[in-house]
Design a protein that fits this description.
The protein has about 350 residues and is an alpha+beta fold. The chain contains 10 helices and 11 strands. Strand 10 (about 290-295) and strand 11 form a beta hairpin.
């Protein structure tokens, strides 16, 4: 494979100019570009973006959603040099910056900005380093050198664009590098690479021929969230949609399952009333005590009656006393929930 093409140096660029270069190249001559963070979405395995949403963004039909975790993203950016530092210290590999924007030699749409490069201490071979950070509850995703699939696809894409055989991650999630750091390395796999670029070629074809992808391979929760972002709030006054018979089974299943959920909720309320009735006498005995116990011949029944204090604004009082302040801090959220009812013909 031929060496990649260096399109430009992104050092010192404004974020707006950097986004322009990533979207269409520095000269604006690439109709549709694919970057490393797009690959997982195109495969339908991104936790954040669906193929349809990304497709509409690339077509210019919707804007990229405003991210509501700006502080977390900023923290991730600040932690990149720390992750790179500990990767170098733990492995002995030499880490260095590379601020170039690269273009794949054979697939002009494929562009890559890497976090860092490294040189392997063992054999002097070059590598690409991706610096990540996560919360503690996501640390298990990196256990025993595991790599989340959406990140693996990103790095394998970079290896292909840069024509490099080795890649690694440095993911940090705490302040103890001995335990809170994962540094798995991968080797280039041409078979996986072919699968990736076959899908990307199809993706570019779909953009050029105006053939949007479906939500077929996307997890339902993410698909519904994405559709809400794409289409926004419902609009009163629009005509009723007439569904074809092929949707009957799906619609009936939704209606049946919704009824089952309603039955379960009613049953839960009944149980809660029974629990409250039984609890009155026990609470009378507990008085101010937090814990109780009943010892039996086979086990113990442990009773907790602990006061938990929560503090939240009294919205009614705030609205009455400070109406202007209430209006300023009022948070408006929108949601749409699908409901299916079976009515007589």
């Amino acid at each position: 494979m031929a060496a990649p093409i260096i399109l430009c140096d992104c050092a010192g660029m404004s974020n707006e100019r950097w986004l322009e270069c990533r979207a269409h190249g520095p000269k604006g001559t690439i109709p549709y570009a694919v970057g490393g963070s797009d690959v997982a979405a195109i495969f339908g395995v991104s936790p954040w973006v669906t193929p349809l949403e990304l497709w509409l963004i690339k077509k210019g039909r919707i804007k990229a959603p405003v991210k509501n975790n700006e502080d977390q993203l900023e923290m991730g950016h600040l932690l990149e040099p720390i992750a790179a530092h500990w990767y170098q210290k733990k492995t002995g590999n030499l880490v260095y910056d590379d601020t170039n924007l690269y273009q794949h030699a054979d697939h002009p749409y494929a562009l890559a900005n890497m976090d860092r490069r490294y040189t392997r201490a063992s054999d002097g071979e070059p590598g690409i380093l991706e610096c990540k950070s996560c919360t503690y509850h996501k640390a298990d995703d990196w256990a025993e050198n595991a790599i989340p699939i959406y990140y693996e696809l990103q790095l394998r894409f970079y290896l292909a664009v840069a024509d490099v055989e080795y890649g690694a991650f440095s993911c940090i999630w705490g302040n103890n590098p001995s335990n809170d750091l994962a540094i798995p390395e991968i080797i280039r796999d041409k078979g996986k690479e072919d699968i990736i670029f076959e899908r990307l070629d199809q993706w570019i074809w779909s953009l050029e021929h105006d053939k949007p992808p479906t939500m077929e391979e996307v997890k339902p929760k993410l698909a519904l969230e994405s559709l809400a972002r794409i289409y926004g709030a419902s609009k009163a006054g629009l005509p009723t949609i007439e569904f074809s018979p092929k949707y009957e089974r799906t619609l009936r299943q939704i209606a049946i399952l919704q009824d089952k959920v309603a039955d379960c909720q009613a049953e839960i309320k009944t149980y809660e009333k029974e629990i409250a009735a039984h609890s009155v006498r026990i609470a009378e005995i507990m008085k101010e005590h937090e814990h109780g116990v009943l010892n039996t011949t086979k086990d113990k029944l442990l009773i907790d009656f602990v006061t938990k204090t929560t503090k939240r604004p009294d919205s009614k009082a705030l609205k009455e006393k400070y109406p202007s302040a209430y209006a300023d801090v009022l948070k408006v959220t929108e949601s749409r929930k699908l409901k299916v009812q079976i009515a007589p013909a």
